[in-house]
Structure formats: C-alpha cells, structure tokens
C-alpha cells in the first residue's frame, strides 16, 4: 500500500492489484480514500485521477455518516410494522419474543443494554423481523408492478445485504435487502422498478435509463436524489 497526501483531500491509500483492469476509487465506511491501481506504472495516472475527482471526493467525505443504532429501554420504534419493548429478566440469558406486532427483549440482569453484545443481538433480531416483513410485502408488490409494466422475472430473494438495495442477476432472479423496508413505499417501488428494468437491459446504458424514466413518469432523477439521502444501516 502506498500513502499520498493532498491539500483538502488529505490521505489517499493506493493499492496495486494486478487483477483489476482499471483504476478504481472508493470512500470506505471509515471515511478513508482508497484507490486500486492495476500496475505500478499507472500510479501517476491514478494520482491525476484522484485530483480530477477532487470535488466528488470532498462531497462524499462531507456526507454525514450513519450513527450506530443504539437501542435503549426507551426505544419504541423498531421496524415499520413492529414496536420494541425491553423488559428486565432475572434469568442469565437475554432473549427475544414476538407478541402481535411487538418485539419483546427480555434483558438479563447480568447484561448491560449498551454493551456491544446486547446491541448486536437486538440488531440481529431487528434484521430478522425486517426480513419477514419484506417477504410479506415485496413479492406481492413485485408481482403487481411487473404485471402493470409487462415485465417477467424468475424468483425473489430477501437477504441481509448492506451495500445494495437490490440486484437482478443474469437469470432474472431479483434480490433485495431486508433494509429496503425502512424506505418510503414510493422509493421501494422505484428500487423494484429499477431491478425489473434490468430483466430487459442488463447494464446502465441509455436504453435502461430511458425505460426507467418512462415507467416512473419521468421522476427517475427525483427518486435517485431522494434515495441518496438514505443509507443501508
């Protein structure tokens, strides 16, 4: 790894990776700038590329980063369809149960609600509940939208991905993250339509953009801007 520093941008980490076919740039979750370079001979070009992307880099670095979810005894909102209640337990094990539309966390007297282990446990329960909610809602909504706009697809899966809202593979299998359920319904529809468009156009070429714009009544750019305000947790 090679470290370079630049005014305003700060430190940039360059990694030589021969398996890469081109120079790539990314901002990590820790707000560091990393660049992958196919060959050491392209290092100078990679530095030029970073400077060309200075405005974009500074914009990304200035975006507010999502704060870790902190579940407390006062937390009530859990998922769109479930509330949360944390109650004390005299047992040595912290457990979870669901009653109607309420998730109940029985917190062991030997556990601290703010500890990393308990926070991860509650987050995992939330993820599972979101996945169940997504399986109840997403397949029916995909069916409705595909029928309305004349799309066909193979299958639907709900995963716990934290990097993409959805994908469409070469066989037209649609995959969505359970965290899609945290979005407003019209943005959920937009993501579904985005992936349905990929059943026809596999890349993000002009035909894809035209199709998506048409079936969203020319609101594509508006929805894309709004979607950027959300981060997968």
Describe the protein in words:
The chain is of the alpha/beta class and 233 residues long. It has 3 domains: 2-62, no CATH class; 83-131, no CATH class; 133-227, Metalloproteases ("zincins"), catalytic domain (Zincin-like, 2-Layer Sandwich). The protein is built from 6 helices and 10 strands; from the N terminus they run ββββααβββαβββααα. Strands 1-2-4-3 form a 4-stranded mixed β-sheet, covered by helices on one side. It has a 3-stranded mixed β-sheet with strand order 5-7-6, with no helix packed on it. Strands 8-10-9 form a 3-stranded mixed β-sheet, covered by helices on one side. A hairpin with a 5-residue loop joins β9 and β10. The relative contact order is 0.08.
Concise account of the structure shown:
The protein has 233 residues and is of the alpha/beta class. It has 3 domains: 2-62, no CATH class; 83-131, no CATH class; 133-227, 2-Layer Sandwich (Zincin-like). The chain has helices spanning 43-52, 54-62, 116-149, 185-197, 206-215, 220-227, and strands spanning 2-6, 10-16, 24-27, 33-37, 83-89, 95-99, 102-108, 156-159, 166-168, 174-177.
Could you name the CATH class of the largest domain?
Answer: Alpha Beta
Radius of gyration: 22 Å
- The percent of residues in helical segments reads 25-40%
Q: Major beta sheet, specifics? A: 4 strands, mixed
* Structural domain tally: 3
CATH architecture type of the largest domain: 2-Layer Sandwich
Give the strand order, joined by hyphens, for the main sheet. 1-2-4-3
Number of strands: 10
In terms of DSSP E residues, the strand content is: 15-25%
Q: Helical segment tally?
A: 6
The string of secondary-structure elements, in order, is: EEEEHHEEEHEEEHHH
CATH fold label of the largest domain: Zincin-like
Separation of the first and last Cα atoms: 29 Å
The residue ranges in which pLDDT falls below 50 over 5 or more consecutive positions are none
Molecular shape? flat
Name the average pLDDT: 91
């Amino acid at each position: 790894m090679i470290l370079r520093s630049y005014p305003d941008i700060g430190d940039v980490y360059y990694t030589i990776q021969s398996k890469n076919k081109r120079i790539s740039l990314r901002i990590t979750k820790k707000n560091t700038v990393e660049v992958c370079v196919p060959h050491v001979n392209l290092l100078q070009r990679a530095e030029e590329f970073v400077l060309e992307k200075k405005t974009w880099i500074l914009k990304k670095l200035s975006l507010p980063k999502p704060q870790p979810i902190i579940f407390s005894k006062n937390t009530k909102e859990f998922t769109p369809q479930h509330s949360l209640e944390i109650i004390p337990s005299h047992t040595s094990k912290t457990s979870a149960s669901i009653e109607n539309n309420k998730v109940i966390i029985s917190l062991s007297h030997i556990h601290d609600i703010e500890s990393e282990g308990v926070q991860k446990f509650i987050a995992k329960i939330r993820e599972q509940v979101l996945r169940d909610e997504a399986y109840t809602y997403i397949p029916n909504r995909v069916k409705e939208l595909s029928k309305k706009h004349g799309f066909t697809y193979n299958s639907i899966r709900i995963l716990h991905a934290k990097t993409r809202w959805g994908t469409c593979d070469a066989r037209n299998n649609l995959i969505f993250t359970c965290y899609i359920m945290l979005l407003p319904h019209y943005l959920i529809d937009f993501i579904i339509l985005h992936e349905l468009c990929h059943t026809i156009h596999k890349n993000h070429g002009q035909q894809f953009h035209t199709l998506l714009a048409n079936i969203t009544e020319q609101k594509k750019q508006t929805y894309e801007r709004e979607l950027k305000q959300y981060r997968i947790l």
